[in-house]
Amino acid sequence: MKNFKLLLLSLLILTSASNYAQTVLLLKADAESASFVDSSIYNHESTATQVTKTTTEFVFGGQSMFFDGNSSLNFPDNSHWALSDNDFTIDMWLKRSGNLTGVQTPISQWHSSLGFSFIILHHANYHNPNEIGVWFNGQVIDQLKGTLSNNWTHIAVVRTNDVIRLYFDGQQVGSDYLLPNNWSVNNSAANLKIGNQQDGNEGHGWQGYIDEVRITKHAIDPNQFPPTESYCEVEADFNQDGVVDINDLLARQEELKKWIKSCWKPALNGEACM
Length: 274
Fold this sequence. Notes:
This protein is of the alpha+beta class and about 270 residues long.
């Protein structure tokens, strides 16, 4: 029976790890480090320009990121940003520091010569006051836009099969963007930027706060929005010897049981930790 339980726990770890492999970016401002850490299993490194952590505004963890319009958090191009023709979810928490004017960009992989992939932005030429929208492949998408309040708002862009939808606090805004057959998001060679547009368009930055940024290579059920707690992080190497093996299970069974209860089951549905 003991061996069976250990085998079951091992299978649960592998299942959860497979699920978390689909989360390619998990940016949490509450990390203890002064730097901006990707908490996904891929640990993507970033370079920050004028981005600050603040304790005056946050959703979870006591801190968020503040962007002053010229700030940016830069992640080099990576195959993980390629959304292609697969299901995906891009979600984050936003709070504007004033009325949205000009061009303001919470996240983008968007460059005129390196390729247009996706961008979430307010553009005064295309959007009403305080409205933000989502564009793909260099095209304005009229269906994917909504008005942002002056409170913290969870936004999520979700592709499910051949439909893309935009959600604010778990409620769909705009309308369904129905995709043609074989539609795919362009594979841009540009950097991924949080809080600004790609190289060459600095100054089109976000003015306000951002928290809990996540890119996931599957469609998260919108019934899970908005998250009620910070996103789970995975730590399967319980004895921290650099190897995930049976010794982790034997050494830390109680911690593993708690982790399975609080994070494994919710993680399978893209939910937050209990």
